[in-house]
């Protein structure tokens, strides 16, 4: 039913020391505690006078606003309890912070910030067109379009070029779809692809691919600078070359000199005036757009009037026409026949009777149009590619010529040659950098008005636009330009004009100037973006050796990162070949795109709750297809470059995994690991474990000291040596108390366990349990540690250090119970005695033996342990010895042969020795020890006394016991009173505890048992008590006249002798492994178990 509320205005009151209330002109609300106290004054008077504000605050769980500051609760939540106020923010303030969250692109605007260090944060205003579409367009269209696309079309043909462009564009389109899904699943700050991959696949993949992306961006700078210098030295200022000549080293050396100077100039501009680079970005974009428009205008013009550019052919060979004007052998001037400049190139003199080159003599010179036009039908000749080796002349198909045997390499100053070997995969590697740059929009997500809408639309629209431009250019170039001209990479056959320039309208200089500024701007942007990407990686701290590059100038400029970028960029410039740098660039970008697709596919398949991208047009199959296409293109471009890139990324991955900072970014790889672990655990549950796959899965029981530190760290060292990182290891401990009171201590204990595991190199899991008592905690761990098929089958613990001390019998009882429960759970138990004397992981045992005393067959674990230890470097030089015991009636020779055969079948290398246990007289010590054990067990069995009674009678019983034993052993000794040690109180209490219903009953509970003697006595109770004591003492005295069981005496004799043999044979061994007897089924024999089992080693 509805509840009615009445809103009453409440005046704010201020409590004074005398209890008076005065009105205050503040809007601070009155506390709930004060309202309740005003209504319940009569109740408060029963509790006495007020003891002050502190006592009032402690007496109520509600807010007490008395004596608080005026604005203490401003922007606080409306929590009921005070301790929740700081941990849970106010809803309105939380929403306000989330709505004002911004992450601007760092480094671009720092130079324009105020000098006082205040960062000017403005509301992002860029839309899809300005913020995403145009930056992507500018980064995608560039140097390859203007300098290499015509050569790719001429070499691969229209169909081959279409296949190259289509593959690359589809690859980037699929990557853009995956990137849009990731980018719209959250805010993408600076770093772009690095941020997306690292937060989706984890710091290892993020760091590896981020550095590859950084190297790709840096080599892109080298590519653009080389393109700039190529345009400068070939088309703008060809006379500015330092090295002259036509040899193969002149041009590369010129590229290196001018490229280095250009890199230094650009680095200086980026360091000093990056804001001018940003302001010139629109100018660079305008150059690109104008150049493309000029190209399309030139194509349309070819329909009306083809440009007047001709190509001179000798036979079917194309010639460089930069050194001659007339394409003829002879010409007639004023009725006089004279030789031309071409005659001088092929003949030894300019006279008509000169000796000329055979190919020149046998073939005629022809001149053809370089650009026949769109309607000329040249498209048929350019459909298929013409791949050729390096050094082969560029020839026109279907052109008649007379071949000769003369080599043509000595005519490199006039003929056009292929400068490199051409094949399809090489062209893919050279072309792919022209479709990179799709991350430009995602890098600016902080500057966008609506990033979740702008990034997908702008990026995909830019890719579709540039794909249309590239595909249309491939078709139009092949339909308008002659094949030999297309294969002329540098335009030497058209008077050193770029091939795309002679097609453009109105002048080739439009393309020359436009491409020059476009390449220069792209190089500056690469040198601006790459250092900031490296700075973002360094500031994340995942790669330790890169931390120095996270620093920079006071305004945030990455100075050190810029220096490294310039150094790496110089390596690309020293290569001095745009065709050689492009495949390197392709490798790094393809690897980056591969992992973007992988991240989207993993997030989609895992269906994590946090994966809620606003971009809906994605599917894991598209991401998987894009990933496969990226991987294929890597090996298509260059299989050895692909292997090098994968090795570099793998090395970075492993370095970050072992040395990098631990980051928890909620990545998909962790989710994938969880799913894989779940699947593997379910599979393990489906079928039982086969013997061949058995290995010790260890639950280590650790004891902590008063500071919650591991008391025996060598127990973890022994675990490491035993496991060598294989299988399951659970390191656990138990804290006594309740979880509510010891929650913080439990967390500290678990952290200390993890720290100890790291120090001892123990790979596994840690777990701290809080229980009402230690015994129940150990029981819980034995029963419930592990999960599914990954459960422990072996328990490792240390032997109680103080087992000889009676006053510490609680540890002994816990130890025995742990042994008993481990046995009941059908698990193996390893008990390490003198664990602090075991070798550490840094020690190396230089010899010695590991002795195995195989007395009882335990299923083979005793034989397996020395083999496992010998795999570790600590025990590697130790030899294995196996001892077994032969009784009087056993054939020791045959036993040794059988044991050697058994060891051989186990594939172990061990020395076998059989120890013969001859029958001998039973010593007095053995007889006395057996008798004491039996009498003690029988005595405690008959004593059903309370704790108070045991304290009163334990001394007299012990005295009688010692006197009786002496009479049995030495008959000639007179009965006398012997002062011996009393039976400890805790040992008598042990038997009493075994008979209780639950082993969580403490001594305090036992003391409060109903069996406690009443302090108020009646005459009848006094007589019953005296009779009871008299009967108990009489039973004990009769018990001391008993004789020990002969079989027990014989077993004790065998144990004593065996202990002596073990001490004698294995005194100098490094480690002794032997079977520990199981705990007695009768709990009344627990005390004898530790007293006899703990002796010897």
Automatic annotation (TrEMBL):
The chain crosses the membrane at residues 129-152, 158-184, 205-237, 257-274, 281-304, 423-442, 454-479, 499-524, 560-578, 584-606, 618-642. It is found in: Cell membrane. Residues 1-69, 991-1015, 1076-1097 are annotated as: Disordered. Residues 131-304, 426-699 form the Amino acid permease/ SLC12A domain. It catalyses: K(+)(in) + chloride(in) = K(+)(out) + chloride(out). Gene3D superfamilies: Amino acid/polyamine transporter I. GO terms for molecular function: potassium:chloride symporter activity. GO terms for cellular component: plasma membrane; synapse. InterPro entries: AA-permease/SLC12A_dom, KCL_cotranspt, SLC12_C, SLC12A_fam. Residues 15-27 have a biased composition (Low complexity). Belongs to the SLC12A transporter family. K/Cl co-transporter subfamily. This is Solute carrier family 12 member 7-like. It comes from Gouania willdenowi.
């Amino acid at each position: 039913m509805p509840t009615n509320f009445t809103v009453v205005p409440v005046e704010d009151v201020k409590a004074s020391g005398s209890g008076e209330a005065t009105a205050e002109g503040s809007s601070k609300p009155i506390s709930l505690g004060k309202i309740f106290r005003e209504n319940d004054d009569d109740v408060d008077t029963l509790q006495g006078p007020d003891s002050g504000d502190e006592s009032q605050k402690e007496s109520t769980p509600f807010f007490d606003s008395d004596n608080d500051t005026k604005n203490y609760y401003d922007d606080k939540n409306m929590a009921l309890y005070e301790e929740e106020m700081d941990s849970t923010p106010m809803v309105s303030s939380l929403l306000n912070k989330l709505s004002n969250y911004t992450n601007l692109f760092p480094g671009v605007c720092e130079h324009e910030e105020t000098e006082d260090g205040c960062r000017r944060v403005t509301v992002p205003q860029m839309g899809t067109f300005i913020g995403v579409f145009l930056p992507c367009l500018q980064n995608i269209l560039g140097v390859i379009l203007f300098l290499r696309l015509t050569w790719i079309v001429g070499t691969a043909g229209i169909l081959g070029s279409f296949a190259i462009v289509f593959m690359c564009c589809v690859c980037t389109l699929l990557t853009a779809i995956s990137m849009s899904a990731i980018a719209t699943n959250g805010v993408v700050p600076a770093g772009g692809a690095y941020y997306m991959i690292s937060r989706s696949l984890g710091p290892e993949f993020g760091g590896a691919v981020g550095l590859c992306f950084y190297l790709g961006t840096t080599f892109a700078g080298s590519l653009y600078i080389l393109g700039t210098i190529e345009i400068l030295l070939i088309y703008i200022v060809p006379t500015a070359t330092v090295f002259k000549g036509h040899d193969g080293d002149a041009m590369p050396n010129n590229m290196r000199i001018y490229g280095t100077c250009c890199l230094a100039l650009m680095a200086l501009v980026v360091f000093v005036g990056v804001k001018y680079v940003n302001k010139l970005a629109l100018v660079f974009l305008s150059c690109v757009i104008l150049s493309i428009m000029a190209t399309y205008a030139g194509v349309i013009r070819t329909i009306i009037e083809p440009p007047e550019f001709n190509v001179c052919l000798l036979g079917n060979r194309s010639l460089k026409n930069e050194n001659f004007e007339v394409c003829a052998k002879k010409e007639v001037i004023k009725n006089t026949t004279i030789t031309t400049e071409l005659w001088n190139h092929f003949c030894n003199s300019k006279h008509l009777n000169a000796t000329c080159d055979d190919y020149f003599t046998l073939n005629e010179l022809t001149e053809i149009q370089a650009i026949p036009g769109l309607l000329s039908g040249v498209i048929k000749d350019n459909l298929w590619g013409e791949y050729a080796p390096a050094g082969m002349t560029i020839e026109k198909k279907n052109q008649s010529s007379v071949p000769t045997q003369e080599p043509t390499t000595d005519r490199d100053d006039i003929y056009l040659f292929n400068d490199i070997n051409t094949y399809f995969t090489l062209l893919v590697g050279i072309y792919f950098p022209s479709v990179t740059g799709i991350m430009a929009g995602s890098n600016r997500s902080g500057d966008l008005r609506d990033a979740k809408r702008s990034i997908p639309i702008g990026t995909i629209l830019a890719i579709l636009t540039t794909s249309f431009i590239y595909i249309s250019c491939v078709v139009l170039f092949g339909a308008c330009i002659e094949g030999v001209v297309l294969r002329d990479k540098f335009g030497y056959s058209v008077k050193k004009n770029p091939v795309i320039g002679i097609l453009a309208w109105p002048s080739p200089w439009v393309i020359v100037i436009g491409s020059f500024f476009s390449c220069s701007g792209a190089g500056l942007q690469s040198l601006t973006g790459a250092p900031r990407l490296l700075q973002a990686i360094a500031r994340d701290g995942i790669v330790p050796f890169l931390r120095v590059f996270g620093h920079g100038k006071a305004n945030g400029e990455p100075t050190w990162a810029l220096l490294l970028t310039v150094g790496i960029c110089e390596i690309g410039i020293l290569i001095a070949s745009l065709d050689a740098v492009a495949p390197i660039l392709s490798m790094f970008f393809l690897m980056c795109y591969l992992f973007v697709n992988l991240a989207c596919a993993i997030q989609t398949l895992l269906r994590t709750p946090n994966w809620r991208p606003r971009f809906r047009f994605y599917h894991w199959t598209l991401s998987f297809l894009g990933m496969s296409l990226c991987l294929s293109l890597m090996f298509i471009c260059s299989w050895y470059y692909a292997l090098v890139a994968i090795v570099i990324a793998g090395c970075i991955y492993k370095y970050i995994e072992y040395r990098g900072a631990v980051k928890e970014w909620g990545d998909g790889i962790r989710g994938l690991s969880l799913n894989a672990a779940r699947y593997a655990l379910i599979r393990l549950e489906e079928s039982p474990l086969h013997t061949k796959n058995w290995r010790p899965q260890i639950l280590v029981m650790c004891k902590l000291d008063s500071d919650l530190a591991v008391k025996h760290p060598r127990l973890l060292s022994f675990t490491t040596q035993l496991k060598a990182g294989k299988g399951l290891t659970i390191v656990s401990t138990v804290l006594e108390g309740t979880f509510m009171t010891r929650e913080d201590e439990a967390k500290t204990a678990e952290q200390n366990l993890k720290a100890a595991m790291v120090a001892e190199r123990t790979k596994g899991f840690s777990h701290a349990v809080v229980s009402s008592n230690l015994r129940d905690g150990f029981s819980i761990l034995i029963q419930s540690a592990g999960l599914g098929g990954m459960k422990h089958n072996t328990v490792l613990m240390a032997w109680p250090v103080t087992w000889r001390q009676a006053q510490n019998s609680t540890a002994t009882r816990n130890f025995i119970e742990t042994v008993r429960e481990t046995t009941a759970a059908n698990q193996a138990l390893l008990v390490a005695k003198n664990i602090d004397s075991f070798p550490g992981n840094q020690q190396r045992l230089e010899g010695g033996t590991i002795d195995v005393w195989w007395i009882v067959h335990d299923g083979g674990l005793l034989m397996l342990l020395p083999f496992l230890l010998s795999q570790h470097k600590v025990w590697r030089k130790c030899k294995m010895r196996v001892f077994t015991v032969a009784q009087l009636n056993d054939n020791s020779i045959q036993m040794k042969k059988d044991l050697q055969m058994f060891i051989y079948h186990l594939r172990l290398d061990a020395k076998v020795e059989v120890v013969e246990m001859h029958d001998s007289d039973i010593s007095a010590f053995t007889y006395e020890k057996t008798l004491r054990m039996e009498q003690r067990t029988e005595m405690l069995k008959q004593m059903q006394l309370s704790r108070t009674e045991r304290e009163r009678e334990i001394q007299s019983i012990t005295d009688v016991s010692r006197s009786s034993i002496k009479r049995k052993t030495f008959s000639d000794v007179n009965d006398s009173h012997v002062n011996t040690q009393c039976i400890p109180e805790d040992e008598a209490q042990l038997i009493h505890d075994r008979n209780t219903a639950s082993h969580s009953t403490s001594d305090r509970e036992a003391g409060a048992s109903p069996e406690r003697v009443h302090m108020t006595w009646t005459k009848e109770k006094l007589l019953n008590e005296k009779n009871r004591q008299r009967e108990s003492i009489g039973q004990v005295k009769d018990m001391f006249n008993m004789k020990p069981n002969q079989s027990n005496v014989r077993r004790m004799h065998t144990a004593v002798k065996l202990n002596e043999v073990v001490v004698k044979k294995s005194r100098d061994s490094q480690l002794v492994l032997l079977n520990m007897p199981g705990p007695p089924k009768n709990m009344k024999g627990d005390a004898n178990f530790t007293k006899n089992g703990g002796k010897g080693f």
